[in-house]
Amino acid sequence: MYVYHCENSIDGIFTGVYDAWASRRGHKNIRLSSAEHQNLTLFSEYITVVPDFEKSRKVSRTLTERLGPGFYDTICRCAMADGNCRKLTMDKANAIYQTIVMALALPEGAKVLEYLGEPCIACIFELCRQTSNEAHHLLEFLRFSELKNGILFAQIHPKNDVLPILADHFTNRLPLENFIIYDAVHRTAAVHSASKNYIIADASTLDLTLADELSQAEETFRNLWCAFFESIAIKDRANAKLQIQNIPKRFWADTIELKDKL
Q1: What is the pTM of this model?
Q2: Which of 110, 113, 159, 200 is 20 to 30 A from 242, alpha carbon to alpha carbon?
Q3: CA 89 to CA 39: how far, in whole Å?
């Protein structure tokens, strides 16, 4: 068995798919792994995959052209998921590779996603749903703050790498705004300039003290909103469990009216 160990990212996994396919060692003899720590097995050869943007782009183009944008979007959302498939204990990188192999072998390859009886497809479905659910939550709870320089800034703490989904959504909703969405967990940022497309950048050296320099209007509206939030609350009908159910507590740190309650 040949085990291709790739980086836990879209580019890393797609590079692994490219290298594994190009090796011509037989799909049944190949397994992909994106886990940081894995149990080594006897009689297996381990190959380290170095992320390569050009190889990743070729895989992306093949999936889009031959299997359609819907299939490509599903695979990407699976790759964005945190960790691996818990129910089936399957590595997501291997599930993606096996799914692509199955899809490209069929005349109507995109329909392979309907074969939920296949372990790799079930894993894809579970992880894609996991990522989509968190992205849906953050689309509702994400808050922008206007800084003194006029840039809209938002900070999130997601489990999954949902930043590209959020960036694409707000680029369409706020095309004329300059904004930054900072993922504090994965240390990346989506940077959007007015009337342009967004870019995903490494934000490991981002100076967050600048995010505390709010515009005067932002501070005024924050105070007004918090006052409104408190004034409409009915103390006798407070339901902490329902509040946590509607807005999971891990989102409170990024929610103006709730972060003081942590």
Answers
A1: 0.86
A2: 159
A3: 13
Residue 45 token pair: 């050869």
Which residues make Cβ contacts (< 8 Å) with residue 83, sequence separation at least 6? 92
pLDDT given for residue 254 in this prediction: 87
Instruction: Report the length, in residues, of the chain.
Output: 262
- Per-residue model confidence (pLDDT) at position 141: 85
How many angstroms separate the CA atoms of 93 and 33, rounded?
Answer: 6
- Residues lower than pLDDT 70 in the chain: 37-38, 84-88, 262
CB–CB of 170/192 below 8 Å? yes
What pLDDT shows up at residue 87? Answer: 62
Are the CB atoms for 32 and 16 separated by under 8 Å?
Answer: yes
Looking at the chain, the number of H-run helices and the number of E-run strands are 8, 8
From the CB of residue 96, how many other CB atoms can be counted at a distance below 10 Å? Answer: 27
